[in-house]
Recover the amino acids of this structure.
């Protein structure tokens, strides 16, 4: 199973070929995805949220974040995800651990019936005060 992660990150999940999408759907169906949530809070304790444009949870407000790639170190994933989501590379050392969370959605990135999505934010949610 060879998924072009660079293509996904540049073009989003919609840029996948059908075969890639089907392979990724098998992964979503069989295992949790590991991700990082970026919790950005200003001095007034307001949290940055954005409305999700894609499935799962399309149309819901959520903090920025993204999936960690296979063999990607947490430090590197944090820099990559902050750069993509926020337009600024932030080092994990500038963040404070908030806790571990999981998100289970009834749908998936393709909208395929009967397959939910399970994200695990295992000690990766970070509070960044700026």
């Amino acid at each position: 199973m060879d998924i072009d992660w660079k293509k996904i990150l540049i073009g989003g999940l919609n840029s996948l070929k059908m075969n890639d999408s089907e392979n990724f759907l098998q992964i979503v169906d069989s295992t949790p995805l590991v991700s990082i949530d970026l919790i950005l809070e200003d001095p007034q304790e307001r949290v940055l949220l954005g409305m999700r444009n894609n499935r799962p949870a399309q149309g819901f407000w959520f903090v920025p974040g993204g999936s960690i790639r296979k063999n990607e170190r947490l430090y590197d994933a944090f820099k990559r995800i902050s750069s993509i989501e926020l337009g600024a590379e932030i080092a994990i050392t500038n963040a404070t651990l908030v806790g571990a969370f999981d998100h289970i959605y009834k749908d998936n990135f393709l909208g395929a019936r009967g397959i939910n999505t399970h994200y695990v934010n295992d000690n990766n949610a970070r509070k960044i005060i700026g």
Notes: The beta strands are 33-41, 50-51, 61-62, 65-67, 96-105, 117-129. The radius of gyration is 15 Å. Residues 18-30 form the longest helix (13 residues). The chain has a mean pLDDT of 82.
